[in-house]
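Fold it.
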Amino acid sequence: MAEEILVNVTSREVRVALVENGILQEIYIERSSHASLLGNIYKGRVHRVVGGLQAAFVDIGFDRAAFLHISDLHTTILGTDIRELLHQGQEILVQVYKDSLGSKGVRVTTQFTLPARYLVLTPGIEKIAVSQRITDEATREQLLKILSPANNNGYIFRTAAVTANSDAIAIDKAFLETAWRTVLARSLKAKVGECVYTEQPIILRLLRDIVPDTIDRVRVDQAHAADEMRGFAKHSAPKLVERIEYHANQQPIFDIHRVETQLQEALRRKIYLKSGGYLIFDQTEAIVAIDVNSGSYLGRGNPDETIFKTNKEAVDVIAQQVRLRNLGGIIIIDFIDMINPEHKIELLGLLRVAFAKDSVKTEVSELTSLGLVQMTRKRTRESLERILCVSCPLCLHRGTIKSPETISNELFRIQQEKE
């Protein structure tokens, strides 16, 4: 499978596209006007403790207080009331693990994690664990023998650790321990609302978290960003250094593999299948509904086989579009009704295989008699539509249109390309 990453850098935003065999699979957009807070650690103060919610609202220096649930506290005894653990005015160190989504503020935790390329440091948890995505038992056992918990710290081996040698893992371990000592030292002097640990910018984060060692190449359309990425990769991911290329061509980088076109199509409500069928995506605050329709596809043989073929074709497109649109929460897929029970079982299996490539945690339920599949996908950042669009004022906010900032950024890129 040919994989590459395209990075479009401007002063206003950075866009990162993951492409597999010419198909846009994922897009990451970080704007200078509202960069992600994910992973940042802040010195906070408990503003209010709400027993009914078993949660606290923590002031970390923003207009809206952060939300801290009792399940996200580092030390929680089952059955304990949060009012026994936290009180108003208490200073506390917290880490953002979910950005502000819609009307909700950021969610924070005291279960800290500091990631590197091959390891994640888990301060205060003396345990060595292995990513669930590493399923080979022999590999898991081999990794567990490399490290031992020490100094009240534990570690999680990331997926990339499978191809790493012991020296690379030792370098990650030393780096993370130094980083955590720095966080603790800064927290002692920090004022409430001050950030004591800032996550890496997206162009470096993608090398650490997104780019696999098997990637064919990473193309970047800004020389300074490409140099910065190579410098970071020399220490954290040496195998990637030679695969990072500066795209000096006058052709806009997102015109490669029709990425810009595919990105625009991902904002549409209707997506057509090659057979003539189509999918309808409806995103609401509480749920995402995906409807599969046969459209103009009538088939030539058995109607059951025609329906099954359309549903099978829809599976891969649904998995790709859910990743690309970054749809999260509860997702309901309405497949075309099937009579054959073997078709239902096979379709469900295909759906699970299709989502196995997703880096975000997903769970797929059984297929109901009505042809409905309920699935959940962890929601950690805003969907593509919420990033690029706003509610349409002309249709009583039932639809969406591109936001003024999105249009402004598009015009800015066009102007840059002409210069």
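Residues 166-189 form the longest helix (24 residues).
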